[in-house]
Amino acid sequence: MSTQERWDAIVIGSGLGGLACAAYLCAAGRRTLVLEAHALAGGNSQVFRRRVRGREYEFDVGLHYIGECGPEGLVTRILNGLGLAERVVFRPLDPDGFSTLVFPDLTFRVPVGWDRYRARLLAAFPGEADALGKLVDLLREIGEQGRRLQNHEVGMGELFASRPEFAKWGLRPITDLFAAHGISQRAQAVLLGEQGDYAVRPSKTPAVLAAGLTDHYMRGAFYPEGGGQVIAARLVEAIRAHGGAVQVRAAVERIAVEDGRVRGVVLAKGGERIDAPVVVSNADLKRTVLELAGAEHFSAATVERVRGFRMSLPLFTAYLDLDVDLGARGVPNTNYWIWGSYDLEGIYAELESGRMPSVPLAYVTAASLKDPTNRHLAPAGHTNVQIMTLVPREYAVWHVAQGPHDARSNRYHRDAEYRRSKAELVERLIEIAEGVIPGLGEHVVWKESATPVTQERFTHSTGGTSYGIEFATDQMGPLRVGPATDVAGLFLAGASTPSGHGIGNVLRSGVVAASAVLEADLLGMLRAGERIGDPAKLPPLTPDWDPVRASR
Length: 552
Fold this sequence. Notes:
- The chain is an alpha/beta fold.
- The protein is 34% helix and 17% strand.
């Protein structure tokens, strides 16, 4: 990469939002440069590999399952618009139970399809069948209309006028909806059993978010063949094929703003400046406004909003290799959500007070079951397993005073107390996971873990969260910032924009940001089946293609 090259746009950060934005800008004829501080493109969708005693392992950082991958799904449309739909194969999870919700005295398998889901809920709670049936029908309506709103198929005013139930309930806390229908705490917990995907306490969860998450998977839950890195790698492929570039190990020190508009960026290494009339930040929202661009370039109201945004609760992840083939043992291709209590509000109260939950809380998933074709995941006869849990926001939980982004050193991982805290939580999660996979602990031959401090180190996310700012009733939709900003030529993509977090949502955020730059309705064009990219420009498919190598 030469800093003397002329670029029409620069994208900071190679998360899927940034890559989707860059790919569409390039496909529309805008030469775009993506700058990534890390050694691998992909942001939270990337993978990491380890070689231990001659054995290779690969683990997903943030892509564990995804919806909207059918022929008419948003993810498929976005890929199709770049000529990539045929290059990303999605494998379905168990349609009879893509997620298994485990409570103290109830196990509930979540099936594909609203009708099947409704019937199974009513069978699980026969004493609440009438009220629960009406509630599920309303959630379906809210979820489907919320999807239309996010995909720009309908405007807020039109939706509120034509759908009074959405207007009444959609933006209110889901707990209001539960109370109005007299739903028991047990049934509420089951309805919110996958809400670790957004990590908001129930009393702050917008009904449209809760309903939207369920709706997202009602047409199927999937996993990309070849692992999470595949989507990022194919987007990188499209960017380069259409005249753009992706540069890793290229951290941005600041966004150059002069006379109220963007002029380019300055690199951290060497202080080199790269000029461009458009900059799209896929970086952390708070760091973008308060550090990269500088608060002085935004209105006082915007700065106050950004400073006041709460970040989502962060995650802790244990990565395990088991010397047993769980598929051969009959373990289903499902996600396990383990809740040690039906009182989800109480669990969040503990987390938000800085304490670890006093009851079991874990998400257990096995990539080897989702994609047995991926030779990188684990050695033959072994199983790749991840166990995740929500943790408090406070750095003190990990015995550090500040995050690595703000510290002068990244030596936190050598601290004995930090390592002890990690090790203890890994063992706790293994113990919890044995409730759904008996004997799991006896088969662990390799393990590693990541804290929110790790997340902040590699992605520079404020507080080490994977989800951006919390998608709560007071921080959702138009209450957020973006895609356009107070600074002319500066746009935003990613989890903290109105699109929200999650693979499908951040991909959408990139398309929305590109639409704002191009002053075009790209989502409308994609709904109509148009292709903005030229598939003929893409390189030929090869059997030895490696998504990690392609993302460097």
